[in-house]
Amino acid sequence: MRPQNIINAFAVFIFVTAVATAMPADPAGAQTVSHPSSASVSPNLSDLPTAHWAQGQNLKMVPAPRPLPPRGAGPGGAPQQDGALQHEEGPHLPVNSKTKFGGIGASGYIPPDPNIAVGLNHIVQMVNSQLAVFNKSGALLTGPVALNTLWTSLGGACAGSNAGDPVVQYDVAADRWLVTQLGSTTGPTYSECIAVSATNDPSGSYNLYAYDFGTSLNDYPKFGVWPTATNSAYLASYNMFDSTGAFTGAQLCAYDRHAMLIHSGSPASICVPAPLSVNLDAHGNPVPDGNFLPSDLDGPTPLTDGTPGLFLNFETNSSLRLYQLSVDFTTLTGTLSQAVPDIVVAPFTQACNGGACIVQPNSQKLDSLGDRLMYRLAYRMFGDHASMVVNHSVVAGSSVGVRWYELRAPLATSTQLPNQFSVVQQGTFAPDSAYRWMGSAAMDGAGNIAIGYSKSSGSVYPSIAAASRTPATPTGTMGTESILQAGAGAQTTYNRWGDYTSLRIDPSDDTTFWYTNEYYSRNSVLFNFNWSTAIGSFTVAASSSQPDFNLSASPSSLTIKRGQSASTTVTVTATAGSNSVNLSVSGLPKGVSASFTPSQVSVTAGGANASANSILKITANRNATTGGPNIVTITGSNGSASHGIPLSLTITQ
């Protein structure tokens, strides 16, 4: 995102987008190997000059990320009604609020793009143009400092401007910090600025690197930490644009984490262009693909060595696409492949058709960024599976809700690579008519999932909110909502809202969620660019000791020809007490029947029979209605709890 000056309070805004002559994505998937154009070591962050709170007329506006070609509706045609919609609040959960404090305030840029990383003892927050270090009680330890001053000793574009798109990560396996931002805003060359802390003290010095992208604009970067035992990487995704402003495809990249940490040699980056999309342009040709998120490891369990880096986007309005990138920093080679066939999800409509329609208590609508998944793609290893959680903003009736997913891959043996992901649950959290958007999702070590997001309506100022669930919560459902910071003002004049909000897990206990987002503490008669940020933490506890269970189905999608049958395995797992679970299915197309073997299973939490399987056989007669995907619902009930999961079903001739 590229900043531009505001001329004055009553001027017509003219946005001059960056001009680039970019390297187009190679449809054959040719890799690019790069090394830093410059490298250095910074002074201690604590020795850099403090950047003061900024307001007034001479502000910089950050234009929206450049739009990508529109997503198609997928094989089923136009998006259907949201079968994952949660239109009322779920069970009450004891969400225990912990620390809350103010983060960086108006920095002179709008939107702030606030995000945080959480370490064992510190929290680092970034916004467009500034960075600050806090302890977990909220005391400001260092900063805020202007981002470009961190790269002063490096020189060049990184030291010369604050180009925005900031991302901060805590690398728990190395006990180090990663800080990044765009190096260039106006060309003729573009770059990524990366800083890796020399010690575990985020207020200390950093190893500095600048990676050039030539005349290609590397827009909307996202980063993930991927600490495999060999060929460990910092993963990154970019949207690339040429000199006409045309999107030329995503670059999916891996930076040599080990070399960057020890500041040895010239750490390589290996980038591979994403293949073309299934979506077509006006002439019927496939278009470049983009808006990917890289996988980002949470939790103490290490990755199975050799696990490729993962990159996810939503490919159509009813599917996710997952790529895996395997790299070797010794031979400087990278291989990109599709991990699994496109993952069918409940059909959705992008919030605001990808644009701005979020309502506030004034006439200014806010940007939804509904055309992309929202940061992060949070990845976690468990004993028998790996999980990823992610979210985006979708239409929910007359407003907007947060669509979230949990994806799982089995881990049958200690050497099996967990990359065969499928949807285990999904939901659209929209319990009332308010607008919920700009979310971030994470999972703690107990399997509790939370989403943080912005909430607004015609009578509610944009506020910071969160919802959560435990493994015992009905599948696809979030519990009651908590307001982490109520807004007291609306944004005027400009529709951009911070899209780098991030929900993190505290590595010191693997239990505490930390979230940051923006809000306004007051209204302004003219320009209201004096935003604030808040940083808050909470934990989630189980809500009940009543018997309960989870459902999953593998495979989660079936394609059946008329006159034939297909089966899926439904797994019932007890999460509390003893359960006798009756299984049923609803929403079958005309001419399609189903049967379970058995139709009732018994499971007990913590026992030898904690899980049990039933085979669901679906048969399409010769006159069955063709089409799809149709979302049917598999339901289990134990008398006191009832859960449903979606199954995608397509009937062919």
Question: Which descriptors apply to this entry?
Answer:
653 residues; ten-stranded mixed beta sheet; Methylamine Dehydrogenase, Chain H; single chain; Immunoglobulin-like; disordered N terminus
Q: Taking Cα atoms only, what radius of gyration do you get, to the nearest Å? A: 24 Å
- Please report which band the strand proportion falls in: under 5%, 5-15%, 15-25%, 25-35%, 35-45% or over 45%: over 45%
What is the global morphology? globular
Number of structural units classed as domains:
2
Q: What is the multimeric organization of the chains shown?
A: single chain
Number of strands: 46
Q: Can you tell me the CATH class of the largest domain?
A: Mainly Beta
Amino-to-carboxy terminus distance: 48 Å
- The parts where pLDDT drops under 50 for at least 5 residues are 1-28, 54-58, 73-79
Largest sheet: 10 strands, mixed
Q: What name is given to the CATH topology of the largest domain?
A: Methylamine Dehydrogenase, Chain H
Mean pLDDT: 88
What helical percentage do the residues reach?
under 10%
- Which CATH-level-2 architecture of the largest domain? 7 Propeller
Helical segment tally? 3
Class of secondary structure makeup:
mainly beta
